[in-house]
Amino acid sequence: MVVIAGERSGVGKTTVTLALLAYLCRQKLRVQSFKVGPDYIDPMFHQYVTGRSCRNLDPVLTSEAYIQECFTRHTQQVDVAVVEGVMGLYDGASATDFFASTAHVARLLNLPVLLVIDCSRLSGSVAAIAHGYRSLDPRLQVAGVVLNRVASDRHLQLLQEALEPLNLPILGVLRRQDDVYIRDRHLGLIPAAELSQLDSVIDRLATLGETCFDWEKLLPILKSQFSIAGVQTLRATSLHSPTRIAVARDRAFNFYYQDNLDILVELGAELVFWSPLSDAALPDDVQGLYFGGGFPEVFAQELAANHLVIAAVKQAIGVGMPTYAECGGLMYLCQQIVDFDAQAWQMVGIIPADAVMGARLTLGYRQAEALQDSPLLAKNAVVWGHEFHRSSLSVPSVPENSLFPLFQAQNYDRQSPLVTEGWRSPTLHASYIHLHFGSNLELPQRFLHYCRSSQFSQ
């Protein structure tokens, strides 16, 4: 079991992680992956390779105890666990105590760290980088380094000579691999479901994993066991009859934490997956709607063309079906999505605003306080969430009396001004802020209670 960390963003953590996962799965090992932080897209690639849902480990969105419990639960029946870090090893929500960084999570789980270093523009300086990262926090166990983007045999020799005095094993060497490439766009990698040639890329990554790592040294580390004292189960169960929730999941809506879906099921939900892109109607006999994030702006023309579904969603929400929509789901419920080409596409129209794409990236953790009751939160409840989007809301008309702003929110450091965010009605919770249910069971419990109590079903 190991944590894959980088000395900064963009050094190749995801390539290294996928190469490891692909080769280990080729060897018929049972592999469970994890991702530090709030990311949705990298876990999709993990799951595509391993066949197991990747789990997010984020102490801001959940808690330290939840991270330990989640990791313990999902490593009981596997041979190997691989945790992909976020940004640089010590980059987290706080620059002083490294809270929510990869280093923080590695300490919580008592796991060794494999440090990925981008060597494309350095040789002897690699020793200073490796030494600094290993010594900054003596509580961490840096098991070795992976040298990425090595240009030549001579380049590798210089790197090896520089690292030799540190007695820090080189556990992998990756040459410049221009043929192993996954395309990206405005919010990161293009999701796995949209890539037609992904199987061949994964096959090349498996071969890369086989040839570029020192398996004699690395495999014992990967198969080592971890131990955390006093881990307790944090989940709840339900005695209620199943509550049918329609969950939008397709190319436009696919940003969901698997733990959120699992928790809803454990609390008594029956999840019915459907597609606002291609289905002709809402699923039958559902009692609530869940629209996750994704890329509705990329598929806005297709979404707008599905008039039957748009009308059905608008009618269902209008007559009181409890609805949870976050980020991309919020955009879908607006009057229009205005894409990067300034083309406007008609959406559901429940929210009296347009979602307008722009160059500015909104990114970061948010502490949010509910201004009014919603299907997920009682008035004055405080939650932590995460934003990641390039759209903003423009309000071209006067809001209806039944629809009000949802949150007062501010950044992680709580030094920024409070802003109002999201929309709510007695049965609607719509926001840019992504929430994780792991340490907030009252959120899904409240939502399911609203769904069970509702007099409306589709």
Description:
This is Cobyrinate a,c-diamide synthase. The record marks 434 as: Increases nucleophilicity of active site Cys. Pathway: Cofactor biosynthesis; adenosylcobalamin biosynthesis; cob(II)yrinate a,c-diamide from sirohydrochlorin (anaerobic route): step 10/10. Keywords: ATP-binding, Cobalamin biosynthesis, Glutamine amidotransferase, Ligase, Magnesium, Nucleotide-binding. Residues 244-439 form the CobB/CobQ-like glutamine amidotransferase domain. The protein is α/β, with parallel strands linked by helices and 458 residues long. It has 2 domains: 2-222, Rossmann fold (3-Layer(aba) Sandwich); 243-453, Class I glutamine amidotransferase (GATase) domain (Rossmann fold). Helix content is 29%, strand content 29%. It is built from 13 helices and 22 strands. Helix 2 (41-50) links the parallel strand 2 and strand 3 (55-57). Helix 1 runs parallel beside helix 2 (41-50) and helix 1 packs across helix 7 (198-212). The longest helix has 15 residues, at 198-212. The protein is globular.
Tag the structure with descriptive keywords.
single chain; 458 residues; alpha/beta; Rossmann fold; 13 helices; 22 strands; 29% helix
Rg calculated over all Cα atoms: 23 Å
* Low confidence ranges: none
- What's the count of strands? 22
The CATH class assignment of the largest domain is: Alpha Beta
Count of helix runs: 13
| Number of separate domains | 2
